[in-house]
Specification:
- The protein has about 525 residues and is an all-alpha fold.
- It has two domains: about 1-15 and about 260-520, no CATH class; about 60-225, no CATH class.
- Helix content is about 80%, strand content about 0%.
- The chain is built from 20 helices and no strands.
- The chain has helices at about 10-15, 35-60, 65-85, 90-100, 105-130, 130-140, 145-170, 175-200, 205-225, 240-275, 280-295, 295-320, 325-360, 365-390, 390-395, 400-425, 425-450, 455-465, 470-490, 495-510.
- Helix 7 (about 145-170) packs antiparallel against helix 8, helix 8 (about 175-200) runs antiparallel to helix 9 and helix 16 (about 400-425) packs antiparallel against helix 17.
- The longest helix has about 35 residues, at about 325-360.
- The radius of gyration is 23 Å and the shape is globular.
Length: about 525
């Protein structure tokens, strides 16, 4: 039996008991890991459906150039938001529990909010003042400076929204964080589509809708969080040096990882803008096709990002309690289950892709359909890597995650320079796929050195996405074979892992009011 099995009673208690015996100040209701999974599955289904319909309508109503403008603007916001606040909210998942158990949570959050507010405001003003230069950087021309000015205002809303989402996730209040994201998705659909129909069919309308949706979601979260904790007297034990000596190194590496992670998602498009040898309009048209190819695969990445953020506080709790073997056991099992789900999603997208591009996208993005299989492959690898990095976060070795992404980025740029002029959009996607494969390999290698080892089942799950490039029906056949092995074999899931999954499915059935399907086993 796996060495983590001796910790199973503690694991069961963690799933069913939310009490914090060492905490003098109790936060709002927290959710167990099982509750979190159920909540995120339910709300994600609604949110992703809304987001998918919204993205399809954007692709259908915008021409390729305007879609490219929106894609590049959104990519800029992804890069700028964590950079503007030095990724300080990214440390909440690791250190909120640390300060809460010591009765110093209020002082910690006040100081984080003050610093992030000041840094964010300065960044937004700077972007507005340098809008001509920023337009040249993002779009390859200074002629879109007005769009950058709107992006500067939207950046402020994104910063506030991200701060509150990170706080709710770190509090293990998955209900509230998922509700925020659902509100954001619904508001973005309503505002973005409404502005496209009622004002102008342009990237500016979509950007205004996105900024407004972030403000609406943030306002809802602030309303629900008001008075969540009684205000205690100032705690003299929490000095400024005590905070920054602990949080700043972790936040610095989280910033590096966030910056490199976001560069991973946008560097190929920046290469297209500046090195494709196309005109400005032609490059934006290519980016629009690329955006269309990413509409469905990015659903997989967004779910991976939410899952990775959701499980970190739970894994961190086990790590702080000294249950290191249990952290490895839970993360390995999660990688297998989620990796199999990613491959299933990729196979499903590959099957319906022709109908999606020909009907929903009105046949406007043929190059996007051409590169879709490799887009699916690297999105699966990227999602797996985001989950695997949690072991580096728990062990406070985030620098290794940054080094892995830096290695992948160092491969992506020269490959794009080599392939992009020769193969066009296909070359950019192939370069990104190779970079993601290298980065995932490096993360697994660093995890192994820190004590987290992948077994044969996990390795098989990681390489499965490559089968998507052989055709949709090959992927479906491979998925059926792997599913059969998962149910009846022992190579993919160990007996102990299958027992844990069966228990979790029993709990899931009980919570949903279903019959206990394993009662007669």
């Amino acid at each position: 039996m796996d060495a983590a099995a001796k910790h199973i009673p503690d694991y069961m208690a963690d799933l069913t008991d939310n009490r914090e015996p060492f905490a003098p100040i109790a936060p709002p209701r927290t959710d167990t890991l099982l509750d979190s999974v159920l909540i995120i599955l339910a709300l994600t289904a609604v949110q992703r459906l809304v987001g998918f319909v919204r993205a399809v309508l954007f692709c259908r109503w915008l021409d390729a150039e305007q879609l490219g403008l929106w894609d590049m603007t959104f990519s800029f916001l992804l890069l700028a938001a964590p950079l503007a606040v030095a990724a300080l909210p990214g440390a909440f998942g690791r250190y909120l529990e640390h300060y809460r158990q010591r009765g110093q949570l209020h002082a910690f959050l006040r100081r984080m909010a003050f610093v992030c507010g000041g840094l964010g405001a300065a960044a937004c003003v700077l972007v507005a003042l340098l809008r001509n230069w920023v337009s040249l950087l993002i779009f390859g021309t200074p002629s879109h400076a007005n769009l950058v000015a709107v992006a500067a205002a939207a950046l402020a809303a994104v910063i506030v929204y991200n701060f509150l989402v990170e706080l709710c996730v770190a509090m293990r209040n998955i209900r509230l964080s998922s509700a925020m994201q659902l509100i954001n998705g619904l508001a973005f659909a309503a505002l973005g589509l409404g502005l496209l129909l009622g004002w102008r069919c342009s990237a500016e309308s979509v950007l205004l809708g996105y900024g407004g949706s972030c403000l609406i979601a943030a306002a809802a979260a602030l309303f629900l969080l008001r008075g969540a904790w009684p205000t205690p007297p100032p705690d003299p034990r929490l000095s400024q040096p005590a905070i920054w000596s602990k949080v700043a190194p972790f936040a610095a590496w989280v910033l590096s990882v966030n910056l490199l992670t976001n560069l991973f998602g946008v560097v190929d498009r920046y290469m297209i803008i500046h090195f494709s040898r196309e005109s400005v309009d032609g490059a934006l048209d290519m980016v629009g096709n690329y955006h269309a190819s990413r509409v469905a695969p990015m659903l997989l990445v967004s779910i991976a990002a939410m899952l990775a953020a959701m499980v970190l506080p739970h894994l961190s709790r086990d790590w702080e309690a000294g249950r290191r073997e249990l952290v490895a056991f839970r993360l390995r099992l999660l990688l297998k289950v989620f990796g199999l789900g990613l491959f299933a999603g990729a196979a499903a997208v590959a099957v319906v892709a022709p109908m999606l591009f020909d009907f929903a996208f009105d046949g406007k993005y043929p190059d996007g359909l051409k590169v879709l299989p490799w887009t699916l492959v690297y999105c699966c690898w990227f999602g797996t890597m985001m989950v695997a990095q949690n072991y580096l976060y728990c062990s406070e070795k985030t620098r290794f995650g940054g080094l892995a992404l830096l290695g992948g980025l160092a491969l992506n740029v020269p490959l794009n320079l080599l392939l992009l002029p020769r193969l066009g959009l296909t070359g950019a996607v192939l370069a990104t796929a190779a970079a993601n494969a290298l980065a995932l390999f490096l993360v697994c290698l660093y995890n192994r050195r820190l004590g987290f080892r992948l077994d044969d089942g996990a390795r098989l799950i990681i390489v499965l996405p490559m089968l998507v490039c052989l055709g949709p029906w090959v992927s479906v056949a491979a998925l059926a074979a792997v599913a059969a092995e998962a149910v009846w074999g022992t190579r993919l899931f160990t007996p102990d892992e299958k027992r844990r999954l069966a228990e979790r499915l029993d709990d899931l059935g009980a919570r949903l009011g279903l019959a206990r399907w394993a009662a007669g086993r």
